[in-house]
Design goal:
The complex is a heterodimer of chains A (about 60) and B (about 140). In chain A, about 75% of the residues lie in helices and about 0% in strands. Chain A has two helices and no strands. The chains are: A mainly alpha (about 60), B mainly alpha (about 140). At the A-B interface, α1 of A face α2 and α3 of B.
Chain lengths: ~60, ~140
Amino acid sequence: MTKAERLRRRLGAADQLAAELAGLHMQAERELFALQDHEARKGGAPAPVADRFPALDR
Amino acid sequence: MAQSPIADARARRDALSLAPDQSQATEAELSAAEGQATTAANDTLAGIEHEVNQATDALLVEGADLRSAYEAVAAEAQSGRLSADEVAARFEDLARRRSSLDNTLSKLGQAIELGDRIEADPLAYIDDLWRRFPQTAPQFSF
């Protein structure tokens, strides 16, 4: 195995972590939109997040 | 005396009609330059290896920290303990950190590709550098 291959294998663990973080990012984003939506509804705001981002509606 | 990449020096030498002892002397110069190139390539590769290893360690620590922080933000958003603005501020901070991590990951990937190139042909890599920066190229007597 070459040095570059060893390095690439090691960096693979960080790559996997980055992919996991992308999933967590989307999940946290959904939670944030849901919370904003909830607050908007409570405050009587005219355009809830779920209407603006229907794909994120749960 | 001429300062040039090894490939150019070899082509110059091959175009000359040299006596056997002169030919031997020029071959020794070319071999010395190849040795110099190999050492330079190995040093560069070692530098890349060191940099990538250190940065990967740091990335794994930062990534694990970010994972915990994302889970915490999601839990806080769900629980309603924080306002949407507070959650949004934390989320933005995490997004910046994640973007920085992705950028570092990409740069390390490029560094590894360079390492690949050097390992595949160390002489060609350094000779190409010498061609682009002729003032750093070796001196030849021919």
